[in-house]
Specification:
The chain has 737 residues and is an alpha/beta fold. It contains 25 helices and 22 strands. The chain has five domains: 2-64, no CATH class; 71-173, OB fold (Dihydrolipoamide Acetyltransferase, E2P), CATH 2.40.50; 174-218 and 380-443, no CATH class; 447-480, no CATH class; 491-726, Metallo-beta-lactamase, Chain A, CATH 3.60.15. 44% of the residues lie in helices and 16% in strands. The strands form four sheets. An eight-stranded mixed beta sheet has the order 13-12-11-8-7-6-21-22, with no helix packed on it. It has a seven-stranded mixed beta sheet with strand order 14-15-16-17-18-19-20.
């Protein structure tokens, strides 16, 4: 039985490794093969094929529910119902729409929308909206998060921006939204948003600084409703019934164990309903249901059985859950605890068990954090040692009880005030820990080094006294495997996918240079959220030069975050910045790094910020790259007049392919083999302009576009081709782009 169950789970988990989904014909053949194997009692292959067919069919259904390519960029009037808790941002409101329908087109069932300066929205309201729709997409950078996979796992078939709207039917019972407003209105020492996250599972109101503190200390799970919270609530009811039975206070006519399991499950479902019954909550409730059933009837079968059953149940309900990092973290944490605390000889005192639980989880989750590209919190064991009981035993019961007693006025508010004070004290303590031990984002590891880390973690989790256990610590040294070096005389170029902006990393054998730092607008700083993490994952420990072409926010916005997050030996700018000291760009300055030649140029007479861009030319073994910033037609002409040898091999498209740049004379004189375009998908500026695209095509220039291909990689000096992240095929990545 266990072999068949394991094969079924393996089939369900294989989904994420498919570069493309098979056709309907192949799916039918797989289903027939599964039926034949099961009929002939070949359980392992039959169960594997059955799980694989179920996962592939579910994924294909999700892909079929995506917005049709012909509707992308169009503005349609549609109707639908607001679901979940709409989120207020600095720019407006973000929400999800269920059951969208339009007279002019067939739409996906679930949409994720944003409304600039939109009115307050409530879950359950029916709206008629004018929406400009887009297919699900996201920035795609090396070793970075894949938003397309996350949107698919949430069954989001399209995203869009609302242009206008009309409320058709107000909600009669939007109790969660009203409760959120009630919680936000109480006095909780400024931690009202944390209470909302803890009670309702809505963490959107938390400040970015709070999220950074939680991430740095590995305590995000405490404020996002997870299996821990569901299990705690269930455990309180189960423990209460068990205690009453032990003390002889439970009615003798009622068997205590079924009642304990039933009440525990009821409490978990009630808390999950209060939290909105999202996918993580559903997963936690399913896992708890399996554990309680095992405790009730199948305890004699061992502790690993409920974990395997829970895994299968979660994946049967939603096979796409395996695309989410939270899925792997949840099951890895539980599996680590089961592995380390079951079938061990001897006993541990409660305080020993508690302290060891934090360390074994930190070790057990290390391979998962590395595989998913998430930061590793060095302070997590110590922080969780205090924070978990603080929240679980004190804050959460007070918060839930205070919420239930809010109709009584002062009683509920007093309990919430006390819970808020405890949360405020916890955040202050965690902030101190985060300052001393910030989160570590290790460089991406080659597959063999990651396997060594996995093996080392497993060895360290073996019982004390097992031979070779100490070898696990040595294997963890693979975390610091030296990065691959760039050959002498060559330069590795990464044009990152930062939307409507620019950030280009250049790496020689011993030096790193960043040309522009990505955009920052309002509370969205892609220098901090995208560029800095990508640099760290690529193994950049310091920047020898930060070069900011000019002062526009789409090029210079992330510079402060870069300088704050990495040591920068020298910073140069085409224009001065208010919040960052930059040396002026000296036209004609030249230098060599590891056999690669660099030179700067800036038009001193430029009349606009774009034309004053600091331009960088790079030459490696006769192959040339020009990073042109946002210079326009006049600056292009001035550059040609000042350059003896204008011919280049690769060109960063000036001003993102604007009509005011990439003139006929400039393209003819430079004669590049290829042009690298950095721009936002469906941007409001119309970049790259159709006339510019036609010019490049007419001259036979290969065009590479971050909005289509994701981040672009070029090794200058090797006379090779441009590579893109999107070339790494995954079935969920939009082939229609």
């Amino acid at each position: 039985m266990r072999t068949g169950m394991f094969a079924l789970a393996l089939g369900l988990l294989c989904l994420g490794f498919f570069p493309a989904l098979p056709s309907v014909g192949w799916l039918v053949l797989l289903a027939i093969g599964a039926g034949v194997c099961l009929f002939t009692r070949l359980w392992p292959p039959g169960c594997f094929l059955l799980g694989l067919c179920w996962a592939l069919g579910s994924a294909q259904a999700a892909l079929d529910d995506r917005l049709a390519p012909g509707l992308e960029g169009r503005t349609l009037w549609l109707e639908g119902r607001v679901v979940g808790l709409p989120t207020r941002t600095a720019q407006g409101v973000r929400f999800e729409l269920q059951g969208a329908r339009s007279r002019r087109a067939e739409l996906p069932q679930r949409l994720q929308l944003s409304w600039f300066d939109g009115p307050p929205l409530r879950a359950g309201e029916q709206w008629r909206l004018a929406v400009t729709l887009q297919r699900p997409a996201g920035l795609l950078n090396p070793h970075g998060p894949d938003l397309e996979a996350q949107l698919l796992a949430r069954r989001i078939g399209a995203t869009g921006s609302v242009k206008a709207g009309q409320l058709l039917a107000p909600v009669a019972g939007g109790w969660r939204d009203r409760l959120r407003q009630r919680l936000l209105a109480v006095d909780a020492h400024g931690r009202q948003a944390a209470l909302v996250a803890l009670v309702l599972g809505d963490g959107t109101g938390l400040a970015r600084q709070d999220w950074q503190t939680l991430q740095a200390t590995g305590t995000v799970h405490l404020l996002v409703i997870s299996g821990q919270h569901i299990g705690l609530v269930a455990g309180l009811l189960y423990g209460l019934v068990a205690g009453l039975a032990r003390w002889g206070l439970w009615p003798a006519r009622l068997p205590w164990l079924p009642w304990a399991c039933g009440l525990a499950m009821t409490a978990a479902l009630a808390y999950g309903w209060l939290a909105g019954a999202g996918v993580p909550v559903q997963r936690a409730c399913l896992m708890l249901a399996v554990v309680l059933l095992w405790r009730l009837r199948f305890r004699h079968l061992g502790a690993t059985l409920p974990l395997l059953l829970a895994l299968i149940a979660v994946l049967l309900v939603e096979p796409l859950a395996a695309l989410l990092p939270g899925f792997w973290l949840s099951f890895a944490a539980v599996a680590t605890l089961v592995y380390c605390f079951s079938a061990r000889l001897g006993g541990w005192r409660p305080w020993q068990a508690w302290t060891r639980a934090q360390w074994v989880i930190a070790i057990g989750l290390l391979p998962v954090l590395l595989a998913t590209g998430l930061p590793v919190s060095l302070s997590a064991p110590l922080a969780n040692l205090v924070a978990v009981p603080w929240v679980s035993v004190a804050v959460l019961p007070l918060a839930l009880l205070g919420t239930v007693l809010l109709p009584l006025g002062g009683v509920g508010e007093a309990l919430l005030w006390l819970a808020g004070g405890l949360l405020d004290g916890l955040f202050r303590l965690l902030a101190l820990v985060a300052q001393q031990r910030p989160a570590w984002l290790p460089p991406a590891l080659p597959w063999w080094a990651w396997l060594l880390v996995c093996l080392g973690s497993w060895l360290l989790l073996l019982p004390r006294g097992v031979p070779l256990r100490g070898l696990g610590g040595v294997m963890l040294l693979a975390l610091w495997v030296p990065k691959a070096t760039v050959p002498f005389g060559q330069v590795e170029v990464w044009q990152l996918d930062v939307g409507q902006g620019l950030a280009v990393l250049l790496r020689t054998r011993h030096h790193d240079l960043l040309y522009d730092a990505g955009p920052a607008r309002g509370d969205t700083d892609l220098g901090e959220r995208v560029v800095l993490p990508t640099l760290r994952k690529l193994g950049v420990r310091r920047l020898d030069l930060l070069l900011v072409s000019h002062a526009h926010a789409d090029h210079a916005g992330g510079a402060v975050a870069i300088q704050r997050g990495l040591p920068v030996r020298r910073a140069i700018g085409g224009e001065a910045l208010e919040n960052l000291h930059l040396q002026p760009c000296a036209s004609g300055e030249q230098w060599q790094w590891d056999g690669v030649h660099f030179s700067l140029w800036r038009w001193a007479d430029g009349q606009s910020s774009n034309d004053r861009s600091c331009v960088l030319r790079v030459e490696a073994q006769g192959e040339r790259l020009l990073l042109a910033g946002d210079m326009e037609a006049a600056a292009e002409q001035a550059w040609l007049a000042a350059t003896d040898t204008p011919r280049i091999d690769w060109l960063q498209a000036p001003h993102h392919g604007s009509r005011s740049s990439s003139t006929e004379a400039f393209i003819r004189a430079t004669a590049p083999r290829g042009v690298l375009i950095s721009r936002g998908r469906n941007n409001s500026f119309g970049h790259p302009h159709a006339q510019v695209v036609e010019r490049y095509r007419r001259h036979g220039v290969m065009m590479h576009d971050t909005a289509v291909e994701g981040a672009l990689r070029l090794v200058l000096g090797r006379q090779g081709a441009v590579e893109s992240v999107r070339e790494q095929r995954r079935f969920w990545r939009d082939s229609a782009r």
